[in-house]
Structures are given as C-alpha cells and as structure tokens.
Amino acid sequence: MLKIYSKKMVSAIVASSLVFGLGAVVSAAPKDDGKQTGRTEQNVQTGAISFNDVTVPRYAKEIKLSGTVVMDGPQLVVDIPGATKTTVTKIADKKWKYEATVDVSAIEGDAEIKISAYTIYTNGKPAGSVHTSAPTAIQKIHVPYVISTVAENTEWTAYDRSANQFTLAYDEVENWSVGDPVITSKTMSVQGMDKEVKVLGTILKVPTAIQDFVFSQEDPKWDFDSNTNTYSATFNILITDSKGNVTTESVTKTGLTPGEVNAVSHSLTDGFGTITKTQEITVPAAPALPVVDVVAVKLSSLQLTLTEQNKEQFKVKASYTIHYSDGSSKNIENEQLGGTIKNPTSKNQTSSTEVFNIGGLVYNVTVTYVSTTKTYEVTAALKQK
Asked: What gap in Å lies between CA 105 and CA 145, rounded to an integer?
C-alpha cells in the first residue's frame, strides 16, 4: 500500500512519461515560476480501467497486456503484480494507454491478473500520494498446459537379430487444455529379452522373434531312394528366440547326391523377416544294388515257318520279339529251333504237336495239314506250367 503525503498544488502540468517503482508513471513537467504552491490530496476514486483481450499461446513464458485508463490527474501509475516492464502513454485528455509484460511461466490454466491505476502529484511530491484512483480491474487469462501425454498407434516395425533389439514406432500425443493435440512420431529401441515396456504410461508386451538357429552336430538319418538314386537326410536344428528360449525342430532335405559333399540350406520366417543358413554335409555312397536275374517274360510278334527235313519231319524257324524282366526287349529273326516236328500226313493224321523252347519260354507248336488247300499251317501256344 502506498503512503500518502500532504502538501502543495502543482501550478502546471504537461504530458510526458516516467516509469518507476512497481508501476508505470506518466507525468507532465512542472512549471517552475519560483512561487510557493499549495497541494490538496484528493484521494478520490473516479477513474476507469479497460483492457484488451489476450490469447496466451502454448509454451509462452511471458505475455503482453494492454489497455486504457480514463482518469483525471497529473501523473498516472499502473500497477500489475508480476509485471516485469510497464509503460504508460497519455493519448488524450484524461485518457492513458498502458502496456505491460507479465511473467506467466509459473501459471497453468485459468488465472486472474489485477490491474490497478491511480494518479499522483508531481514536482517533488513523494511518490505514493494519491490524487485520483480507479476500481481495480480483473483480467482473466488462460495459460495453456498439457493435460496428458500418451502413446498411440504403437507398432513393432523392425527386429535387429544381431543386437536382439526391437524397434517400436508410436505417436506421442500431447493433449492440451485448449486446442488440438500435438502429435509427434517417435521410435525407440527395446531389448528382445524384455517381457514388456512402458511407453508414456502405456504398458506393451514385447514380441518374440527368432534370433538365431544352428544345425545340430548329431549325424543325420539317411534314407536312400532307389528310384532317383538320391538320399534324403533328416536332422535337427536348434532355434534360439529373442527371449533366450531354445527349441528343437526336425528338418528333412531330399535329392542329395550319394558320395558327395552337399550344401544344405534352411530358412525360418517370423513377423520380422527370414533368416537363412547353409551347411555342408557329406552324403554316404549309394548302397550296393541286389543282383537280380533277368529272364524272358513274354514273346510278341511270334511267326513260325516250316522247313522240310524229310518226308516225315519238319524243321521250325521262329521270328519274334522277346521281352525281359528288367524291361528290355530284343528282336529275333529266323531262329532255327532245336528238334523237329512230325509231318502229320506221314501217319495219316491232320495235325501233330511238339514242345519247343522259343526264346527261353516253352511253347506247344502244332502243324496242321489243310487238305482243301494241300498246305501246312503252324501255330504255337505257351505251355502252361
């Protein structure tokens, strides 16, 4: 509270500006005519204060207030608590303009700023002697502040297998007391061994990925395919995940060349990509094949011809294709069969039959005399066992 001192009248006042004490002061320079003047301390409340609206921006440390004061008096003082700089300018008779810089760095949310104004005497009068004052004005302001900061749109975007680290991408969302949220895209690294991670108050479960795998040192199980003359190998791989857990998986690789070093590759895929490894293994020689006798299984295109040996007997020649048990075949032309067959007419018969070995198969060969044409026909039938 300012003290009030007594005292003399000021003979003349002209407009000018002074700043001192807690507020801003504007006064007119006194006229010094060498005469003693008396002063009357009025101390009356006849002034009025008006202020301009202020919107405080985010992150503001200080703001500027401004307004006008209508008040009669020789010298105006504007008092605003927290103001670091205040200026007052007289713009008309009994009308003053003020501007003030106010520190709001310690304020969050709604606040009230008190604005006081009064005039005092000049010309040597001690400061604080009130001439005229105004009712205190209350200017309400809102200093924006962050209500909450949260993580949204979280996503595990990558995994570094060598370092066993995941990359978490997320939006840092600042929710303010006024206006739209402030959204900033961010990333962070998280150790693969961690079970969970806390991001701006949100707890997230850390995923599990394949960190590495190795081929087991145990001998594979071999299986030979005689149709393709290749081996298949069944062996184990040891898989280590990002949490340090080790599991075993059985793998079979086919088409391996016997008796050679074969490169065997295997791949594992998870949600963060594919890991591939290759190992060389020596494949055993192919097993010895069992000895299988190749025999004739059938004849095709069999044709027989007769050659007269004498009046009572014929010799037989055969042409045919022989088929063997291994799938092969062979063509035979005019093979002279062993033995003879009787001429049926020598015994007053129409036919005679003998057994012949043709290409390793036993056939009943029959010669028939056709009296109408006076010719001989020869046929063969496989002998049933």
From this structure: 11
Phi and psi for 212 in degrees, rounded to 5?
A: -165, 165
- CB distance 104 to 56 below 8 Å: yes
208/211 Cα distance (integer angstroms): 9
Quote the distance between the C-alpha of residue 60 and its chain's center.
38
Phi, psi for residue 338 in degrees, rounded to 5: -75, 145
How far lies 212's CA from each of 161, 171, 242, 297, 356, in Å? 7, 31, 8, 58, 74
Amino acid at 165: Q
Best CA proximity match to 251, nearest among 215, 211, 210, 282: 215
Instruction: Calculate the CA 336 to chain-centre distance.
Output: 84
- Banded model confidence at residue 347, pLDDT cuts 50, 70, 90: confident
What is the 8-class DSSP label of residue 287?
P
CA distance 88 to 17: 7
Predicted pLDDT at 203: 97
Q: Are 364 and 355 in contact (CB under 8 A)?
A: yes
DSSP-assigned states of every residue in 323-381: EETTS-EEEEEEEE-SS-EE-GGGGT-SEEEEEEEETTEEEEEEEEEETTTTEEEEEEE
Query: Alpha-carbon distance 168 to 198, whole Å?
Result: 11
The model's pLDDT over 176-235, given as tens digits with 9 standing for 90+, comes to 999 999 999 999 999 999 999 999 999 999 999 999 999 999 999 999 999 999 999 999
**C-beta of residue 297 within 8 angstroms of C-beta of residue 324:** yes
Measured in degrees and rounded to the nearest 5, phi and psi for residue 281 equal -130, 145
- Determine which helix (DSSP H) or strand (DSSP E) holds 276, and give its type and residue range: strand 273-282
Distance in angstroms (rounded) separating the CA atoms of residues 246 and 237: 10
* Residue position matching structure tokens 């502040």: 145
Amino acid identity of residue 43, one-letter, is N
